[in-house]
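ok trying again, last paste got cut off:
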Amino acid sequence: MKKNTPTKKFLFEKRNYRFLFIALMLIAIGFILMTGGGSEDPNYFNEEIFNFRRIRLAPTMVLIGFGVAMYSILTKPTSKK
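nice, full thing came through this time. structure:
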């Protein structure tokens, strides 16, 4: 007589993990783009800290990454029949 043992299932599917990995990569790229622009000499102000890459592009990449992560978490698994 067989026991009715529940089958173990992952919380997410392969598709969800792919989106989550893409999201983590986008967030990491965004933070990498934010780096730099500082000055070694405290008496010298470097204008590079206010360029397009650090002010607009990098935060946008991070926010897009967070959006993709939310999508990957909230996407329902596909039903296989």
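cool. Residues 37 and 43 are 15 Å apart (CA to CA). The two ends are 27 Å apart (CA to CA).
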